[in-house]
Design a protein that fits this description.
Layout (H helix, E strand, L loop, with lengths): L7 H40 L3 H16 L3 E7 L7 E9 L10 E3 L1 H6 L1 H5 L4 E3 L9 H8 L5 E9 L2 E10 L8 H52 L4 H16 L3 E7 L5 E8 L16 H12 L4 E3 L9 H9 L4 E9 L2 E10 L8 H99 L4 H14 L1 H33 L7 E3 L1 H11 L1 H11 L13 E3 L1 H44 L9 H7 L3 H6 L5 H10 L1
Antiparallel strand pairs: 1-2, 1-6, 2-3, 4-5, 5-6, 7-8, 7-11, 9-10, 10-11, 12-13
Helix pairs in contact: 1-2, 1-6, 2-6, 6-7, 6-10, 7-10, 10-11, 10-12, 10-15, 12-13, 13-15, 14-15, 15-16, 15-18
């Protein structure tokens, strides 16, 4: 029993030690849970990029851990001087109102406490009515039923971003140092989360800027590519306005063209459905403000970027005109055709004011430059088109001239043909014509003889004697002998004419202009027959003959009429060449004779006469050159090519 506790003092000491041990155990347990909550918060900050989720989850864990009535994250309104703000995250007990929907206005805070909180001040108030707070501060806390609070600053870099607020609403509360340190650490990690979110926002902004720049380059490349593809000016403008409107997310993009008097018209646009169109609806615009004030600046390649037309200092008339366009903000850049101010490229924001970014203005400037290039290209294309039309006209005139030349050649050939045909027909016609007189006389005499016989022969010897006398007068025996010969001669002439006509028809083949299979013997024979008169005259004069050594020639596919024309041209040229060659040979013979005489004098000792080198050269030219120079005309070559 010696070990038993036998007095009250020892019992009380042991009980106090047990209570202290229990309190220490509770403190250790609370610290462990706080450390777990802190670790959980750190892990969420590392794992999540959603700052709102981080705040909300942390508020729930803190309120549960500290057994508070409300835990909220309060953010100051940017630019308010820390006098205004709102709760952005909260966890509150069910029997107390939420602070999320309330805008907080505390004009005392900004002037009295903001600077201290920036330096790290922490406010731990056990009872707001016993802490000596200002009346305005108490009124702010009363609207949220706050009785005790713990306020820790949340910094973003060096700036006071907001507050971590822990409220006890049901009763007053003394805040332990461990709780204050825990809240301070949580606020510190909030600052890290805010900094991390800021970095993420900056990164996202950079990515968005890169995406935007990429989209702008893509749009610029698309327009440039259309220009390189030599598409029409209209297609280029339609593409440019549509691409820019979509890329800049504006309400309207339009192309405006100046007239000679500096009035103008909208000629192309891309506009969203809720705004009225300007192209084809708005009449020619005569804006004195633009014509007198801004035109010179546009001519100097300056742009206008207006965030709000009502704050730009525009003249009332110009504002009224922009209101007709339904514009509230705009960017306008000039379009040049070479060095001449051609028009304007305009982007309009109709729904409200807009601050234009440098990259947006740069894009519009680049697009306007490309439109200027497209204008120059369109002008060049128009000039080329005009030149092409002129060349086509010239070519048509040349074709007409060639056709006329061919026609003239045909007419010349036709003249030769007519001459040959006339010569060939003339001979049989002459002896037919000459024989017609004799035939007429023979027939007249025979008719008179028959008439005399009818009158006298049947009656008396006197009639018979008269008939006999008439027969002797007309020399019936001669007529009997000569009439068959005359008729045979006329028959020969008519047969000759018939052959000539058939040859002429075979030569011309007017009914055979299509590509077909023919016997070229007929064409050659017809051509030789038509040229027979000239061939005979040449052969008699220059002692040559035509030898028909055709051999076996198969049927060929050709244009018969054109091929016969080739035969005509070739034979005519050959006859011309023979005549010219003979004449040239006679001329060369005379020159050679003179040279021989000069050489003879040299051999005999006489001084030689001066022999001109040109004379010597021309003397030894072959007659082949004379005959070769008369090649078949172009029309014949063309006909042969077509017949191949």
């Amino acid at each position: 029993m010696s070990h038993l506790i036998n007095n009250d003092e020892q019992f009380n000491a042991l009980q106090q030690a047990a209570e202290q041990l229990s309190s220490c155990a509770g403190q250790i347990s609370l610290q462990i849970r706080q450390q777990q909550a802190l670790t959980s918060s750190i892990n969420r900050i590392r794992a999540s990029s959603d700052i709102q989720t981080i705040f909300k989850t942390a508020a729930t864990e803190i309120r549960e851990l500290l057994a508070a009535d409300r835990v909220g994250v309060f953010r100051f309104t940017l630019g308010s001087g820390w006098d205004e703000g709102e709760f952005v995250a909260e966890d509150v007990a069910l029997n107390f109102p939420s602070a999320m929907a309330t805008k907080v206005h505390d004009h005392c805070f900004g002037s009295q406490f903001a600077a201290h909180y920036c330096e790290g001040r922490i406010q731990a108030v056990a009872d707001i009515y016993q802490a000596g707070l200002s009346d305005c501060h108490i009124r702010v806390l009363e609207q949220f039923q706050v009785r005790a609070n713990l306020i820790v600053p949340v910094l973003k870099g060096d700036e006071l971003w907001g507050l971590l607020c822990i409220h006890q609403c049901a009763h007053s509360r003394y805040w332990q140092m461990t709780e204050i340190e825990f809240a301070k650490k949580i606020a510190g990690h909030f600052a890290i989360a805010l900094q991390q979110a800021q970095y993420l926002e900056q990164l996202q902004a950079q990515v968005a800027q890169l995406d935007k720049a990429k989209a702008q380059e893509k749009a610029l490349f698309k327009i440039t590519n259309r220009i390189r593809q030599s598409l029409g000016w209209e297609a280029i403008c339609e593409t440019a306005t549509a691409e820019v409107r979509q890329l800049l997310a504006v309400d309207r993009v339009a192309v405006y063209r100046f007239n000679a008097d500096w009035s103008g018209d909208f000629v192309f646009e891309s506009v969203t459905d809720e705004w009225k169109p300007l192209v084809g609806v708005t009449t020619t615009i005569k804006d004195t403000h633009l014509m007198e004030s801004e035109r010179e600046r546009y001519a100097n390649n300056e742009f206008f970027a207006i965030a709000d037309i009502y704050e730009a200092g525009y003249a009332d008339c110009h504002v009224a005109l922009l209101e007709e366009f339904q514009a509230r903000a705009h960017v306008i850049v000039p379009i040049f055709q070479s060095d001449r101010l051609w028009g304007l490229l305009a982007a309009f924001q109709n729904s409200g004011p807009r601050q234009w970014q440098d990259d947006e203005i740069k894009l519009l400037t680049q697009i306007s430059e490309q439109l200027g290039i497209a204008l120059q290209q369109a002008e060049a294309v128009w000039k080329i088109h005009a030149q092409s039309v002129a060349l086509e006209q010239t070519l048509e005139e040349l074709k007409q001239s060639q056709m006329q030349m061919v026609q003239n050649e045909k007419m010349a050939s036709l003249g030769q043909l007519v001459a040959g045909v006339a010569h060939e027909i003339n001979n049989p016609i002459n002896f037919i014509h000459g024989n017609l007189t004799h035939i007429n006389r023979y027939i007249t005499d025979l008719l008179s003889l028959i008439s005399a016989y009818q009158q006298h022969a049947p009656g008396s010897p006197e009639g018979m004697a008269a008939f006999q006398q008439k027969a002797e007068e007309i020399d019936v025996d001669f007529i009997t002998e000569d009439l068959p010969k005359t008729l045979a001669s006329m028959n020969t002439g008519t047969e000759r004419i018939r052959h000539i006509v058939l040859s002429l028809r075979n030569f011309s083949r007017l009914d055979e202009s299509d590509f077909k299979t023919v016997d070229i013997h007929q064409g050659l024979d017809s051509t030789l027959l038509i040229l027979g008169g000239r061939i005979k005259a040449c052969s008699d004069r220059y002692q040559f003959e035509i030898v028909k050594n055709y051999g076996h020639l198969p049927l060929i596919e050709c244009y018969p009429a054109q091929l016969n024309q080739v035969f005509m041209n070739l034979l005519t040229n050959a006859l011309d060449a023979i005549e010219e060659a003979v004449e040239k040979a006679a001329e060369q013979k005379n020159k050679l004779t003179k040279i021989q005489e000069s050489l003879k004098h040299t051999k005999s000792g006489s001084p030689p006469k001066s022999i001109n080198q040109t004379t010597l050269k021309s003397a030894f030219e072959t007659m082949a050159l004379a005959s070769a120079k008369n090649s078949a005309p172009k029309y014949s070559i063309t006909s042969l090519q077509q017949s191949q």
